[in-house]
Amino acid sequence: MILYFLTLVLFVMGVYCLIAKKNIIKKIIGLTITDYAINLFIILIGYRANGIAPIMFKNMTMQELTERGVDPLPQALVLTSIVIGLGVLSMMTAICLRLYEKYKTFDMSEINRLKG
Question: At a CB cut-off of 8 Å and minimum separation 6, what does 11 contact?
Fold first, then answer.
């Protein structure tokens, strides 16, 4: 139960960075932290104590696999989420660099003031 609470704390830290910070880099870091917290939560949902990999070995029965095997679906979802998160991170970094080239600052309030 403590792991779920720590995941919630990590999620709240990321959302705080998104809402309260004015620096674009800090907002990107906050979104990345939020993404990691969600991935960790999904992995924790699929966790089973003393579980085994969902692979059928020679001396294993199907019943033993279903009783002790870990659900592979959350792992596949998180793997997909990591790849998508990496793509989003690279896109946000490219946009951030373009904004810096144009406005010479990472401060969102300054960019909004200079917009025009």
Answer: 34, 37, 38, 41
Among 69, 71, 2, 74, residue whose Cα is nearest residue 38: 74
- Spatial separation of the C-alpha atoms in residues 115 and 6, rounded to whole Å: 39
Domain ranges (residues) in the chain: 2-114
Q: Distance of alpha carbon 33 from its chain centroid, rounded? A: 6
pTM of the model: 0.85
Separation in Å, CA 49 to CA 44, 46, 68: 11, 10, 9
CATH T-level fold of 2-114: Helix Hairpins (1.10.287)
pLDDT truncated to tens, each residue of the chain (116 aa)?
899 999 999 999 999 999 999 999 999 999 999 999 999 999 999 888 888 888 888 888 888 888 888 888 998 999 999 999 999 999 999 999 999 999 999 999 888 887 76
